[in-house]
Automatic annotation (TrEMBL):
Signal sequence region: 1-26
Entry-linked Pfam families: Peripla_BP_4
Residue ranges crossing the lipid bilayer per the database entry: none
InterPro entries noted in UniProt: Peripla_BP_I, SBP_2_dom
UniProtKB keywords: Signal
Top-level division of the source organism's lineage: Bacteria
Localization (cell): Cell envelope
Protein name as annotated: Substrate-binding domain-containing protein
Family listed: Belongs to the bacterial solute-binding protein 2 family.
Domain Periplasmic binding protein residues, every copy: 57-313
Length: 349
C-alpha cells in the first residue's frame, strides 16, 4: 500500500490510504445455491493498489508564495511519486489567471488523462475547466471552487466554515464560563469567501456558549500583515481573553506583535496547521495553545482520486461503486494533548 506520511489517517487520501475495503453483504437462495454479491462493489482495495495503465495527470496551482500553498504543491508531487503508474506534469505556479488558463489549455492539447487544478480564481478558471471536461478529460477541482458544476468531475475542499466552528468550540471550552470574556479575531483577507465562511462559523459556535466576537481585525495571510493587524488589535483592546488567528503563516507576525507588547493575559488559537505553530503548541511556552487544521493534503488527495477516475476504478471502502463528486475534509483542533498525531502533516511557513 502506498501512502504519504500521515497522522492516524484522518484525512490523507494520497496513495491508496483512502481505499480500506469494506465487505459487502452476499445473498444466497434458500436451496443452497452458490452465494452471489448483492451489489457490484466496483474495484477492491487490492485491485486499486495494483499497477494499472500509466495515467498522465496535469497539475496546476497558484504560486507557492505561502507555506500552505508550498505544501499543496509538494504534496501533489509526493502523491504522484508514490504510484508507479502515474506520470505528473506540473505547470509553473502562478497567480495570473490567464497564465493558468494557458497551462490548462496546454494540458488539453497534450491529451492528458486527468487534470488536478487548484485555481488562482475559481470563477476565472471555470470556462477552461469545462473545456477540459468536454474534451473527455476529468478535472479534479481543489480548494477554490469553480462557478459551474459542469467544470469538475470531483471537487476536494477543506472545511472553512468548519474551521470557524472548531475554533469557536475550543474557545468556548476554554473561556466560556466567563460571560464577559473578550474574544478577538484576526481574520485573513476579508473579501475572500473562505474568510467569510471561517468568520461565520466562528460566530455561530461562540453564540452557542453565549459569547461573541468583541474585537476583529483583518490581515492578508502574510507575516507583515499579521504583525500589523495584531498590533492594531492589541493597542485598541487593553484586555483580551482569547484570540483566534485564521492563519498560521500570518500568525508568525501575530506572535511577534504579542511578544513586543508584553501581553500574555489571553490564550491564542491558530489556523491551517503549520509546523512552527505545532512546535509552539508542543513547547507550551507562549500564548498559542491550539490550532485548527486546514488540510494541505488536498492536492495529494486529488492526485489519488484522479488516478482512480482515469483508470476507471472506484473507492474501495464505499458500497456505491464510484468516486465521490464532492469531498469535504474535516477541521480537527490540535492541542498539546494530540499534537503528536498531526505534526507530520504540518507544513513549513
Amino acid at each position: 500500500m502506498r501512502t504519504l506520511a500521515r497522522g492516524r489517517g484522518r484525512f490523507v487520501i494520497a496513495g491508496t490510504a483512502i481505499l480500506a475495503s469494506i465487505g459487502l453483504l452476499a445473498g444466497c437462495t434458500g436451496t443452497g445455491a452458490e452465494e452471489e454479491d448483492v451489489v457490484d462493489q466496483g474495484t477492491s482495495v487490492e485491485e486499486n493498489a495494483e499497477s494499472g495503465d500509466t495515467v498522465v495527470i496535469g497539475f496546476s496551482g497558484p504560486a507557492a508564495d505561502h507555506g500552505w500553498l508550498g505544501a499543496i504543491n509538494s504534496g501533489a508531487q509526493a502523491a504522484a511519486e508514490s504510484f508507479d503508474d502515474v506520470e505528473l506534469r506540473v505547470a509553473e505556479g502562478t497567480n495570473d489567471a490567464n497564465a493558468q488558463i494557458a497551462a490548462v489549455e496546454t494540458f488539453i492539447n497534450d491529451g492528458v488523462d486527468a487534470i488536478v487544478l487548484l485555481p488562482t480564481d475559481g470563477a476565472a478558471l471555470t470556462e477552461v475547466a469545462i473545456e477540459a471536461m468536454q474534451a473527455g478529460i476529468p478535472v479534479i477541482n481543489v480548494d477554490r471552487e469553480f462557478s459551474s458544476p459542469f467544470a469538475a468531475r470531483t471537487t476536494i475542499l477543506g472545511d472553512n466554515y468548519g474551521m470557524g466552528v472548531s475554533a469557536g468550540t475550543y474557545i468556548c471550552e476554554q473561556v466560556g464560563d466567563n460571560p464577559d470574556a473578550v474574544v478577538a479575531e484576526i481574520a485573513g483577507i476579508d473579501s475572500l469567501p473562505l474568510t467569510q465562511d471561517r468568520s461565520q462559523g466562528f460566530e455561530d459556535a461562540l453564540s452557542d456558549c453565549g459569547l461573541e466576537v468583541s474585537a476583529r481585525v483583518a490581515a492578508d495571510f502574510t507575516v507583515a500583515g499579521g504583525e500589523a493587524a495584531a498590533s492594531q488589535l492589541l493597542a485598541a483592546n487593553p484586555q483580551i481573553d482569547a484570540i483566534w488567528n485564521h492563519d498560521d503563516d500570518q500568525g508568525i507576525g501575530v506572535l511577534a506583535a504579542i511578544e513586543s507588547s508584553g501581553r500574555d493575559e489571553f490564550i491564542m488559537m491558530g489556523g491551517a496547521g503549520s509546523r512552527n505553530a505545532m512546535e509552539a503548541i508542543q513547547a507550551d511556552d507562549s500564548v498559542l495553545k491550539a490550532t485548527v487544521i486546514y488540510p494541505s493534503t488536498q492536492a495529494a488527495d486529488g492526485i489519488a482520486l484522479a488516478r482512480l477516475i482515469a483508470q476507471q476504478k472506484t473507492v474501495g471502502d464505499l458500497v456505491t461503486p464510484s468516486v465521490p463528486n464532492r469531498v469535504v475534509l474535516d477541521a480537527p483542533v490540535v492541542t498539546k494533548d494530540n499534537v503528536e498525531e498531526f505534526i507530520d502533516l504540518s507544513f513549513e511557513s
